[in-house]
């Protein structure tokens, strides 16, 4: 036997021993999670098993402790899956998302809740809200803003008519690929299907590489991928999940014009989330229609040195010229300086609703 094969053998034996340890430790961890479930149930028969603030703390701790060689995000992803499996042992979690299967929203749902969550595709954003409101699922996942294309107005508008709360956020790096099926004539592509937002995010690449192909907008990237299966002269722009789901080949990868293209998704539910230590709060405010209203709204945030991460304006559905403001800022509603700001804004506003305080996205 050569030296290298002896070495390989020894290393594999060591890996087997380590796997034994990992297996034992994961099982012990799962056992602990089951005991946590018993404690929760003994305190409250309607106990909520999923604890986003605790999950965020676990992942942040692991990322801070990690010394490599795996990078912190990779390590957190592994722990994300362990926690997902532990939670499923306590109580399986059901999550609705803006479908169909294979969309970036499904990818975001899995990134946030892990593979052990049961995820159910819905045809529209309102349906995701409705399922959560009706208690048919525990949580929902909807897109809210894209770094290239801006806000998803439909999601914001749906919050105005709903009592649903925001329980979390997840940011997904969006990579688009040009996809074809095994029967596509790659030199004869004359039509490309995709969602309008994806076309917008890949405009320059398309102008340079497929200036003459017809661009056909469809309701989702997954739908685009599905259509390609049946047409020999068509391609689709979609992401990894759709490529995998419909078994398509990537003719060109990462064709988005901006390398930092990302989408933020919200986790919606019926629950108030306690502080995790690094939180955000989202509010919706209607101001009276008078001069200086916007200044009056923003001034308390400035004075209390609260870091505002987003401000969107949407027309209110009640008065013709009235606008409402969607504001995200750092901090949790239970922190004294946040409570103070909310009290001041309440006095100046026609209406204020806290949509939720939740952990800042970790992964
Ligand atoms: O700490 C808890 O409350 C648990 O239920 C345990 C645990 C975990 O596996 O660490 C599992 C699910 C919760 O969402 C948070 C954490």
UniProtKB/TrEMBL annotation:
Coiled coil: 1-28
InterPro entries: ACT-like_dom_sf, ACT_dom, Chor_mutase/pphenate_deHydtase, Chorismate_II_sf, CM_dom_sf, CM_II_prokaryot, G/b/e-P-prot_chorismate_mutase, Preph_deHydtase
Domain of life: Bacteria
Domain called Chorismate mutase: residue spans: 2-94
Gene Ontology molecular function: prephenate dehydratase activity
Subcellular localization: Cytoplasm
Catalytic reaction list: chorismate = prephenate; prephenate + H(+) = 3-phenylpyruvate + CO2 + H2O
Known EC number: 4.2.1.51, 5.4.99.5
This protein's pathway: Amino-acid biosynthesis; L-phenylalanine biosynthesis; phenylpyruvate from prephenate: step 1/1; Metabolic intermediate biosynthesis; prephenate biosynthesis; prephenate from chorismate: step 1/1
Gene3D superfamilies recorded: 3.30.70.260, Chorismate mutase, Periplasmic binding protein-like II
Chain ranges of the ACT domain: 282-359
Domain Prephenate dehydratase: 94-270
Record function comment: Catalyzes the Claisen rearrangement of chorismate to prephenate and the decarboxylation/dehydration of prephenate to phenylpyruvate.
PANTHER family per record: PREPHENATE DEHYDRATASE P PROTEIN, PREPHENATE DEHYDRATASE-RELATED
Protein name: Bifunctional chorismate mutase/prephenate dehydratase
Organism for this UniProt entry: Vreelandella gomseomensis
């Amino acid at each position: 036997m050569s030296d290298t094969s002896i070495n390989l053998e020894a290393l594999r034996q060591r890996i087997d021993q380590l796997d034994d340890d990992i297996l034992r430790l994961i099982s012990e961890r799962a056992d602990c999670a089951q005991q946590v479930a018993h404690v929760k149930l003994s305190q409250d028969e309607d106990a909520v098993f999923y604890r986003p603030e605790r999950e965020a703390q676990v992942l942040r701790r692991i990322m801070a402790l990690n010394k490599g060689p795996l990078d912190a995000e990779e390590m957190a992803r592994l722990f994300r899956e362990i926690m997902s499996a532990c939670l499923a042992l306590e109580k399986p979690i059901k999550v609705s998302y803006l479908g169909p299967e294979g969309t970036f929203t499904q990818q975001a749902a899995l990134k946030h809740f892990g593979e052990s969550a049961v995820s159910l595709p819905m045809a529209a954003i309102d349906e995701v809200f409705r399922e959560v409101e009706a208690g048919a699922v525990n949580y929902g996942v909807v897109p809210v803003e894209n770094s290239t294309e801006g806000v998803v107005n439909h999601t914001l508008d749906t919050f105005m008519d709903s009592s649903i709360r925001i329980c979390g956020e997840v940011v997904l790096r969006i990579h688009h690929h040009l996809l074809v099926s095994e029967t596509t004539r790659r030199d004869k592509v004359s039509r490309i299907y995709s969602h309008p937002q994806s076309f917008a995010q890949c405009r320059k690449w398309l102008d340079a590489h497929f200036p003459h192909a017809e661009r056909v907008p469809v309701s989702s990237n997954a739908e685009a991928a599905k259509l390609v299966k049946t047409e020999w002269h068509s391609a689709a722009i979609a992401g990894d999940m759709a490529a995998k789901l419909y078994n398509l080949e990537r003719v060109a990868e990462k064709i988005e014009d901006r390398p930092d293209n990302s989408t933020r998704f919200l986790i919606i539910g019926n629950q108030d989330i306690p502080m995790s230590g690094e939180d955000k709060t989202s509010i919706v405010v209607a101001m009276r229609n008078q001069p200086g209203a916007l200044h009056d709204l923003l001034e308390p945030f400035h004075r209390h040195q609260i870091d505002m991460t987003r401000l969107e304006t949407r027309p209110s559905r009640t008065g013709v010229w009235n606008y409402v403001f969607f504001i995200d800022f750092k901090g949790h509603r239970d922190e004294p300086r946040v409570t103070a700001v909310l009290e001041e804004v309440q006095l100046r506003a026609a209406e204020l609703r806290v949509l939720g305080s939740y952990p800042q996205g970790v992964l």
